[in-house]
Task: inverse folding
């Protein structure tokens, strides 16, 4: 998915009609490029942290909820936008090329906004308008919510208006979204050439793929996760070395006792199990205190988690099993050494 921003100079494009005509000519040309599956445009691209918010009014007789509607994120889109972005249609119809200035004014709301409009939000009978725009738009469809602001931010109530029906002359910018069947970067020059066929002086900016924006949006969480992961690996290593050292030291201090046990008839296997049990006891104590500390620290790491419950049972079980395995491995060598103690040497040493 390739994206690029177009900001029309107001000196040459003064009216909304001129904006729409330019955009329509560009899209017609871009869609004919080999390798382009679909193309459209939107005023605010998802994942960019932008969402213009306006006060929305609904016809009083049609209100299905108490009180006014919430402020909504407003996005102007060209035809084929939802298909290009693969935003699912939940009910009603999508905006298309037939939504022009000469046809009835239409709009689409997202799932969150539809909750305020009631069960008949997409049947075309509900009309809304922006406080800054007195024209009434009929709601003809409901689409699913998206991550408009960022991956860690929930969607706000939103309304999508056809770009061809906008009256806001100040809205001179749009972002092209082009879905390709080939590598998106390979189509940049061809798309730029088609835009310059419409206006040879029109500059483009922020040419990037949607994957690049996605990577940018998770850059800080990824860095935080890598840092936390590094500290976790260091802590696990310290746990392994520390437990090994403690168990090995305990075996060396109890060498006479172990030799005496073997001399009195204890089997090597029982000595092996005894040392493993000692290591397991220390590990269990550490795991219990560690889990309690982790539960208390969940609020501190909540901002680093995406779609993961801070108290995730599967994660806690996995970590517990991992620490148990580490404890077993740390105790294995000292236990083996203890089971091989020569009682004569141990008693003579003491």
Result:
């Amino acid at each position: 998915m390739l994206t690029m921003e177009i900001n029309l100079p107001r000196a040459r494009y003064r009216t909304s009609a001129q904006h729409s005509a330019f955009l329509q000519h560009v899209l017609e040309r871009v869609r004919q490029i080999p390798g382009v599956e679909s193309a459209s445009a939107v005023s605010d691209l998802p994942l960019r942290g932008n969402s213009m918010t306006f006060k929305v009014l609904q016809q009083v007789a049609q209100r299905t909820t108490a009180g006014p509607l919430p402020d909504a994120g407003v996005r102007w889109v060209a035809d084929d936008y939802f298909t290009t972005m693969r935003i699912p249609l939940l009910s009603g119809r999508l905006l298309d090329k037939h939504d022009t200035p000469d046809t009835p004014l239409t709009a689409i709301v997202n799932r969150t906004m539809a909750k305020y409009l009631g069960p008949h939000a997409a049947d075309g009978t509900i009309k809304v308008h922006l406080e800054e725009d007195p024209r009434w738009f009929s709601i003809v469809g409901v689409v699913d919510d998206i991550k408009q602001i960022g991956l860690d931010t929930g969607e706000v109530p939103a309304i999508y208006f056809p770009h061809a029906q906008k009256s806001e002359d100040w809205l001179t910018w749009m972002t092209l979204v082009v879905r390709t069947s080939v590598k998106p970067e390979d189509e940049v020059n061809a798309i730029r050439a088609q835009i310059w066929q419409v206006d040879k002086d029109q500059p483009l900016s922020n040419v990037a793929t949607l994957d690049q924006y996605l990577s940018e949006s998770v850059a800080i969480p990824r860095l935080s996760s890598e840092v936390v992961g590094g500290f976790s690996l260091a802590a696990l290593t310290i746990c392994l070395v520390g437990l090994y050292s403690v168990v090995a030291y305990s075996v060396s201090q109890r060498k006479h006792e172990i030799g005496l046990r073997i001399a009195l008839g204890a089997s090597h296997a029982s000595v092996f199990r005894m040392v493993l049990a000692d290591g397991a006891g220390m590990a269990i104590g550490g795991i219990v205190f560690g889990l309690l500390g982790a539960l208390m620290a969940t609020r501190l790491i909540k901002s680093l988690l995406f779609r993961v419950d801070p108290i995730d049972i599967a994660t806690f079980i996995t970590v517990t099993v991992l620490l148990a395995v580490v404890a077993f491995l740390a105790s294995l060598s000292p236990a083996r050494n203890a089971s091989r103690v020569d009682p004569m040497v141990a008693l003579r040493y003491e």
